[in-house]
Amino acid sequence: MTNLQSRLATEIEARRGDLVTLTQELIRIPTLNPPGDNYREICDFLDLRLLRAGFHTQLIRAKGAPGDSDRYPRWNIVARREGARPGQCVHFNSHIDVVDVGRGWTVDPFGGLERDGKVYGRGACDMKGGLAASIVAAEAFLAVVPDWEGVIEISGTADEESGGFGGVAYLAEQGHFARVDHVIIPEPLNVDRICLGHRGVWWAEIETYGEIAHGSMPFLGDCAVRHMGAVLHEMEETLFPALARKRTDMPVVPDGAKQSTLNINSLHGGQEEIAKDSTGLPSPVVPDSARMVIDRRFLIEEKIDEVQQELNDVLERVKARRDGFSYDIREMHRVLPTMTERDAPVVTTVTEAIRATLGKEPDYVVSPGTYDQKHIDRIGRLKNCVAYGPGILDLAHKPDEYVGVDDMVASAQVMALSLLSLLGPPDNP
Length: 429
Description:
By secondary structure, the protein is of the alpha/beta class. It folds into two domains: about 280 residues, Zn peptidases (Aminopeptidase), CATH 3.40.630; about 130 residues, Alpha-Beta Plaits (2-Layer Sandwich), CATH 3.30.70. It contains ten helices and 16 strands. The strands form four sheets. A six-stranded mixed beta sheet has the order 1-2-6-3-7-15. Strands 10-11-9-12 form a four-stranded antiparallel beta sheet, covered by helices on one side. A three-stranded antiparallel beta sheet has the order 4-5-16. A hairpin with a 2-residue loop joins strand 4 and strand 5. Helix 4 crosses helix 10 and helix 6 packs across helix 7. The longest helix is centred in the N-terminal third of the chain and has 21 residues. The termini are close together.
């Protein structure tokens, strides 16, 4: 390390306790999504913290975005700090929402427990530890490097777990990323990895139709559930084997995600479920509708039209051999794959910072699922973006989720050295 790099790393180590405390305080604000709890509370908390560090802040509500309502407003915060001279803009983006707690916890999911070098809680790994690390990295940089050029931005954004439309997508639609040069998203992809992008996703709802009749005389009706069963059988026989044969050159992790995949997200046929507090029985009818939601993940080598056509072909093959078969298929959501080039400025910068901090070469990976890079790329038109942050990907959304303190410190050091490289004084080696 150079002298300035060493001073930055030492400064962040000295802020270890503050980094832990900040992570705990963020975890203790339960920003569950759905429905979108406490977004304003966490934005107000971040506002006070970043104002103290000399940032100018904006609290931005994504009015009219999916999920936004007066009961659950989609609040975001963007903080901006300008250097002594004009220069490039480095933006750290973290999502503030967390998923449902689920069962199986042995610690308080919103307690922020620190134990054995780990901070536990829902969102510790995904991704409040990364948010805290980016803030501490920026504050340490400002303390050690007073003479810098350009702009540092830090954002906390809503709804990444449900698509990001009330968060990064909204900011991108407002043109925010037009003034940004480099984006680092501190998602938990492991501290020695740089995530270049993600696979594509296509969600759709398939509905099969039948004819209602008395359940004692099903021959007088037409069972939509049986039609859907035929669709499932056709998928098992032809579609799933075809997807398993598709492989990518993208460095997707884990290895199973290097192929195309399809998940049946939900399946329902017939009458609506009886309320849990009801003691009644369902009525005897032949179901005239069955619905299935699919989650198709596809590779950068695939075209979205081909992905859709594969599903249409499945349905048409079933239709050709089943009397009375009819269906609808409705697109719910699509995201195209994205992957930043390895020689992009932000990639080479973070690479050098990992070498200096960890003394090793990083692994370059691609995420099996999507995250907010999709909006920065497709709407914001900014390709120079990576995900890099603390945490183990496999712990995301799990019970007893945690983030390692050593990993948070190391990732903050990498982020600070990246700032030094991109914005530091002109004579910085």
